[in-house]
Amino acid sequence: MSGQKIFSFPGGIKLAHRKEASSEKAIEPLPMPDRLILPLRHSAGSAPMPIVKTGEKVKKGQCLASAESWISASLHAPTSGTVRDIGDYPIAHPSGLAALCIVIEADGEDAWVERRPFLEDSARLGPEATQRYLQGMGVVGMGGAVLPSHVKLSKAPGISLETLIVNGAECEPFITCDDRLMRERSDEIASGIIFLVELLGAREAIIAIEDNKPEAAAAMRAALSARLETTANDIRVTIIPAVYPAGSLKQLIYMLTGKRAPAGVLPAQLGVQCFNTATIHAIWRALAHGEPVISRIITVTGNVNRPGNLEAPLGTPILDILRYAEVRPETDGCLVGGPMMGFLLPNYDAPIGKGANCLIARSPEFFPARAPESPCMRCTSCAQVCPQGLLPYEMYRWSRVKDFAKVINYNINECIECGCCSYVCASSIPLVQYFRFAKDEIRTAARKKEAADKARERFEFRQFRIEREKEERSLKLARAAQKSAAEQAEIAAAVERVGSSGATTREHGEKA
Amino acid sequence: MEILAAISVMAFGALILGAAIGYAAVRFKVDGDPITDKINAILPQTQCGQCGYPGCKPYAEAIARGDAEINLCPPGGEDAIRNLSELLGREYKPAGESVRTETQPGIALIDEAACIGCTLCIQACPVDAILGAAKQMHTVIIPFCTGCELCLPPCPVDCIEIKPAPESPENWAWPHPAENRPFAAPTLERF
C-alpha cells in the first residue's frame, strides 16, 4: 500500500492547521430550521427549472427543480413542508446580491418521499443511465467547485481512465468536515470508491489524505481492507505532505501522478479523474439509499463557543448555524469557505449551499488586522510560492493599472486564486483581490464583445431583409403595372372589336 | 547593338514583373476596407445613431475616410475612444458631452399594460429585439436589446423606458481593490 512516489509541486506554503478546535468533534445533526431558502442556481452550469408552485406541499427529498441542460443538476426539498415563496433572496455570494430561491417552511414531520435505490438498476442499465440518475439526484462536487458530478463520469473519447483520485486532502486551515466524514463514514466512502472504480473502469484509485489526518487515513484503510477482496483493482490510501494548496485539483494530480494539465486540458484527457470524499459519499447515498443531496457536513469554527462539524440541511440560514454554535458577541464577520480562498459574508440571512464546507466566525483574536497595503517592491516572494508557476507581481502591476492585455500575457487565467501570494506578500498587498478584479474585467469585456458581434449580425441581417423586402415590393409593383397595362390593352382591344362589330351591325341594320 | 540588348533585357524584366503584379492584384484582392472592419469591431454595435450616422458601420466608414471625429460614440464611452486612437494613431480626444462615462448600457422595457400594439417601436429597433404584431402587446427580447433608445421617440403612448440591466450574482464583478477599499483586505487575513 505504500511506496507511492510523491511528486512535489513548485511553490506552496506550510500553514498553521488550526484544525484542533473542531477535528475531535463528532458530526452532529443540526436541528431542522423553520425556514429553508434554496437558491435555484446551486451548481456550476445552468439553473434547474422549478417544478413546484407556491403553496404546494412537498415531502423530504421531493424534486423541487429539475435539470434541463447537461451541465446542471436537480434540486430537492431538504425536509417536508410547504413552498412559501419562489423569489429573490440574498445568497451566500461575495456580492451580497439576491438570486431566485425556493423558500420552504418546514412542517416538523420530516417525512420522506418514497426512496428507490438505484444500485441494481445501475448495473443493469449501464453508466449513461447512472449519470442521468445522479443528475436527477442533484449530486454536485462538494469540495467547493459544485460542478455536477455526472459530467465527470463521462469518459474522454479514446482515453482510458488510469487513476481515480479521491481528494481527502482538505488543505485549508480550520476545515475538518472531510476529516470527520472519512473517520465516521469510511464504509460508505469506500463502497462509493469501489463502485466508481468499476463504473469508470479505472486501473487504480488513490485516496489522498494529508499527513495531519492520520485517524482518517487509518479509518479509510480499515474500511478498504475489509472490502478489497471484492475487487481486483489497485485501491490505496496515500499520505501526502500537508503543503497548501495540496488539495487543489492540478496540484493534487501532479503530486500523485506527475502529470501536469496544460491550460485548457481537462484531467480526464490525462486519464485522471478526481472526486472529493464528500462527493463520493453523496454519490453512494444516492445510489444505495435513493437519497438526493439535501444536506452537507459543514465545519463551524473560529470565534464560537461550540465549534464543531454539523450535518446541516441545505438552505439553512447561516445565522442559524452560527447561533447554534454559540457565536461570541465580539465577532466582526463570517468567512464562508476556508481562510485562504473563502469570502467574507455580506449578509447573515443567506443560506448555505452544496459547496459550503466551512463557516469561520471572524474576530481580531483569530484574524489580527492586516498591515496597511504598501507599494510593491518586487521582492518576488509571491512568485516563489505560486503553485501554478505564475508571476503574481507582474500580474498585479498590470491589473492595478487595468492593462488587461498584458495581464492575459502573464496567464492570469491559470491563477487558481489560492491566496499563497497574498499570504506571503511583504507589502501586504491583497494580490488575489486584484486578480479576481482583473479576471472579471476580462470576462466582462469578452461577454460585451460577444454581445456586440451578435448585435452587428442582427443589424446587418435586418438591413439585408429591408433591402430584400424593398426589392420584392418594387418587383411586385412592376409586375402589377405590367399586368394592368396588359389588361388595359386587352380591354382596349375588346372595345375596339366590339366597336367595330357594332358598327357593322349598325350598317347591316341600316341596310335592313 | 549592345544598347538594344540591354533595353530588351530590361523591357523583358519589366514585362514579367508587371504581369506578376497584375496577377497578384487580382489574386490577392482585398474585399472591402480592412480598416473599416477594424473600426467597426471596436464600436459597440448598439446601432443607436447618436453619432449622427445611421448605424455603427456608416460611422466606421466615416472615421476611415477621415470625415468623422473618433469621440462621437456615446455608448462606447472612454474605452472606445482610447481604442480608436490607438488603432488609428490619431490623437486622443476627450469625450463630447454626450459620451457617457459609465459603461453599463440600459435595457428597454415595455409597460405591456399600456402598449397599444402600434408596431412603431418594432420598426425603429435596429437589431430586431422587439417582438409583437399589430394590435397585439409588444415585448423586448432582453438578451438582444442593446439599449440604443431608438424605440423611445416613436412610441405614441410613452410606454417604453430604459432601465439599467439588473445586477445578479452571475454578472457581478469584483471591484478594483485599491479604488474601492483602500488598504484593507477583508477576506484574506494573516493568521
Describe this structure in words.
The complex is a heterodimer of chains A (512) and B (191). Chain A has 512 residues and is an alpha/beta fold. Chain A folds into 2 domains: 20-106 and 115-313, NADH-ubiquinone oxidoreductase 51kDa subunit (Rossmann fold, 3-Layer(aba) Sandwich), CATH 3.40.50; 376-475, no CATH class. Chain A has helices at 20-23, 119-125, 127-136, 149-152, 177-184, 186-200, 214-225, 249-257, 277-289, 318-324, 381-385, 392-400, 404-409, 420-424, 431-511, and strands at residues 27-29, 35-39, 49-50, 57-58, 63-66, 75-76, 81-90, 98-106, 163-168, 204-210, 234-240, 272-276, 295-302, 308-313, 333-336, 343-344, 358-362. In chain A, the strands form 4 sheets. Chain A has a 6-stranded mixed β-sheet with strand order 1-14-13-17-15-16. A 4-stranded antiparallel β-sheet of chain A has the order 2-8-7-4, with no helix packed on it. In chain A, α2 (119-125) crosses α3 (127-136), α5 packs parallel to α7 (214-225) and α12 crosses α15 (431-511). Chain A is globular. The relative contact order of chain A is 0.12. Chain B is mainly alpha-helical and 191 residues long. Among the domains of chain B are: 34-88, 3-methyladenine DNA Glycosylase II, Chain A, domain 3 (Orthogonal Bundle); 106-164, Alpha-Beta Plaits. Chain B has helices spanning 2-27, 34-42, 56-65, 77-88, 120-124, 177-180, and strands at residues 106-110, 130-131, 139-140, 160-164. In chain B, the strands form 2 sheets. Chain B has a two-stranded antiparallel ribbon with strand order 1-4. A two-stranded antiparallel ribbon of chain B has the order 2-3. In chain B, β2 (130-131) and β3 form a beta hairpin. Chain B starts with a helix and ends in an 11-residue tail after the last helix. At the A-B interface, β16 and α15 of A face loops of B.
